[in-house]
Design a protein that fits this description.
Length: 669
């Protein structure tokens, strides 16, 4: 049944609580399934023993369901390695205890912070971001099954340390974790989409497939029951029983922390979710939560949902609106869009009200992804506004509001000219951060390409070349946040290189930045890091915008999952171009590869493709399988006559071939 949530007196929005989004088919089975990081069961056991200290007998028995291990002596401990990022409620069985036996648990994502006296940091529990401490089990311990209290659940960890807190021996068995994330999935591995390609350059030929699935699994760990948010301002320890929004399951930013809806993060994770699981209900619930908290007087949308409930960001306000467009594009859910349309138009009006006689938006609400500065007449803020206006015009057209669509489209055209007049920095060949600086930021330049603010192919190529000057061997260092590699903005840059058809640069960045994240031994090697410093460490310095210690870094952060959608949309080349996939494009970027295959699902059905290059890259062949009744266009990556189903077809002036839906075979060369 629909539920109405009313805020103030002038709007209401409806959203479905039903979990009926997971009723369509699954992705086809194939070798790609072996790269799916999601566990086969919602209850998981450790894969290996990482560390044993003190007097511990038969420690390796704990990687079985029935074997018994005994800890003897105060501070003796075992660290279990679950092999991947997990999260949820720990259970174990006490087989032998005495009245003076004691036991405690500690958790960490990174092996760097294995500690029998403390867990890694998830709570900001003090001004210096002290560690979370341990979970000490109530004494006296009792024979039989012990289960972790629900509020003490750890949202993300790979390593569990079990430590004896007394000199009396204690014997335990069957240590497991009941997965709490993606609660509406009976089978966490039941993806609706897939991707498969071999990398001929990287040291691991399966890298591209692995990183696609690492991004998909990261976002799965970021989908939470609505009552399992991170409590804030608690004096010590942690608690994960805060309410996250108006409905669940709900999409948040990270598994360990923040466990909170953040507007910007959805700009990446929403697309990841679409191409992998097509599980869009958590995306919708997150957006609906943000609209429910809109300021009724100004139209300002929050930067983060409850319990943080942070306001004060013009750029993250824009990400809410961009997310609305993305959700509608992927879902075709017109009923929901109409339900939030009054909120949406008021939010666009908020941004336009900040455009003054200069013709530019004046950014006064400064919160952002962590970058420095960005206030005033900034390039990022105005690029965001341009994207809001262009996508808003599309939405207005879909809802049959031509006057509004025309007004927003006209304003976007004027703004684009002004952005290029004020912020283009000819000597650098890039956009500068504002009209008085020579700093050319990663975010504004990447988004200018991605959102079509650039005016020519030459301008876009200049920007992509300029962005590479910020690279080191581990990725792209953001000039607007020195010493920091931020995969959120890196995800945007990755798209920008592909969008401008600088595929070699895109693949180079992908291998550097995401290759480091996936294979570094300081992380979980199954989900993706929130960020790191330019030398690869997890320390975010307080004078560089981030104010937390290295243990606070999230190792499963949805804003870092750009490669998952990028590999589908660009390398595979398949994307939807109107709501739900009524129209689509097949435009493979072969990117030095010889083949790729994959697909995704919408409410209309399956969208799949498989392509190969042969004869030294001169012959291109593909199979395209999209729903009947849809229409699309294809662009082939090699020169030559194009045949579809054995019949020669002609390209239009833009180099595209127009096709109707169905199963098609394509040959060039």
């Amino acid at each position: 049944m629909p539920v109405d949530v009313k805020m103030g007196t002038f709007w209401s929005l409806s959203f479905a609580l039903t979990l009926g989004t997971l009723v369509l088919g699954s992705a086809p089975k194939g070798p790609w399934d072996s790269f799916n990081y999601a566990p086969a069961s919602r209850t998981v056991w450790a894969k290996s023993i990482k560390t044993v200290e003190g007097t511990v007998h038969n420690a390796h028995n704990l990687i079985t369901k029935t074997g018994i291990a005994t800890l003897s002596g105060n501070q003796s401990y075992i660290t279990l390695d679950f092999g991947i990022e997990v999260g949820g409620l720990v259970s174990l069985r006490f087989n032998s205890v005495s009245p003076s036996s004691g036991l405690a648990l500690s958790f960490t994502e990174s092996p760097l912070f294995i500690n029998p006296l403390a867990s890694d940091d998830s709570t900001e529990s003090s001004a210096d971001r002290s560690l979370d401490g341990i979970e000490t089990l109530d004494t006296p311990l009792s024979h039989g099954l012990w289960s972790q209290p629900s509020y003490r659940m750890r949202g993300g960890f790979r390593f569990l340390t079990i430590v004896s807190t007394s000199s009396a021996p204690v014997s335990i068995s069957n240590v497991s974790c009941a997965i709490s994330f993606s609660p509406h999935f009976d089978d966490l591995r039941d993806y609706k989409g897939y991707f498969y390609a071999s990398d001929p350059v990287f040291h691991d030929k399966d890298f591209l497939t692995k990183i696609w699935y690492a991004g998909a699994y990261t976002v799965q760990t970021n989908v939470l029951p609505v009552d399992t948010g991170r409590q804030v301002n608690i004096p010590r320890g942690w608690a994960n029983n805060a309410t996250l929004g108006i409905a669940g399951p709900i999409l948040v930013d990270g598994a360990k922390r923040d466990r909170n809806v953040w507007a910007g993060d959805m700009g990446v994770s929403g697309s990841t979710m679409f191409v992998s699981t097509n599980d869009l209900l958590p995306f919708k619930n997150a957006l609906a939560t943000m609209f429910s908290l809109q300021n009724p007087a100004t139209g300002l949308l929050p930067m983060a949902g409850p319990p943080l409930s942070i306001v004060g960001s013009d750029t993250y306000h824009a990400w809410n609106l961009i997310g609305t467009y993305n959700y509608y594009l992927y879902s075709g859910d017109e009923t929901w869009l109409r339900g939030v349309w009054t909120n949406y138009t008021k939010a666009v009006a908020y941004m336009e009200s900040k455009v003054d006689s200069t013709g530019l938006m004046n950014v006064t609400s400064l919160g952002d992804w962590g970058r420095l500065a960005g206030d005033g007449y900034s390039a990022p803020g105005n690029v965001y506004l341009y994207r809001v206006l262009t996508t808003g015009a599309e939405l207005a057209t879909y809802l049959n509001e031509p006057d509004l669509a025309n007004a927003w489209s006209t304003n976007a055209t004027v703004l684009k000219a002004k952005i290029n007049e004020v912020f283009w920095f000819p000597s650098a060949g890039m956009y500068r951060d504002n009209s008085t600086t020579e700093l050319c930021p990663q975010d504004a330049n990447a988004m200018a390409i991605l959102f079509n603010v650039t005016t020519s192919e030459e301008q876009a190529n200049s920007i992509t070349k300029g962005l590479t000057k910020n690279w080191n061997e581990l990725g792209a260092v953001a000039p607007e946040l020195p010493d920091t590699i931020a995969p959120f903005v890196g995800s945007l840059e990755l798209q920008a290189h592909f969008h401008s058809r600088n595929d070699d640069l895109a693949m180079d960045l992908l291998r550097r930045e995401w290759g480091y994240m996936l294979y570094t031994n300081i992380s979980v090697q199954s989900t993706l890091l929130e960020g790191y410093t330019s030398n690869g460490s997890l320390f975010f310095r307080a004078d560089r915008g981030y104010h937390f210690d290295p243990t606070y870094t999230s190792h499963a952060h949805g804003w870092s999952t750009g490669p998952t959608s990028v590999l589908t949309f660009y390398v595979l080349g398949l994307t939807v171009t109107s709501p739900g996939g009524q129209t689509w494009t097949f435009d493979p970027h072969t990117s030095g590869l010889t083949s790729a295959e994959g697909g995704f699902e919408t409410s209309l059905g399956w969208f799949g493709a498989k392509w190969t290059l042969s004869n030294g890259g001169k012959i291109f062949s593909a199979t395209l399988d999209v729903p009947k009744g849809t229409t699309g266009q294809i662009r082939v990556p090699v020169e030559g006559a194009v045949s579809v189903g054995g019949r020669r077809v002609e390209k239009d002036a833009s180099g595209f071939v127009r096709l109707s839906g169905g199963r098609q075979s394509i040959m060039v060369g």
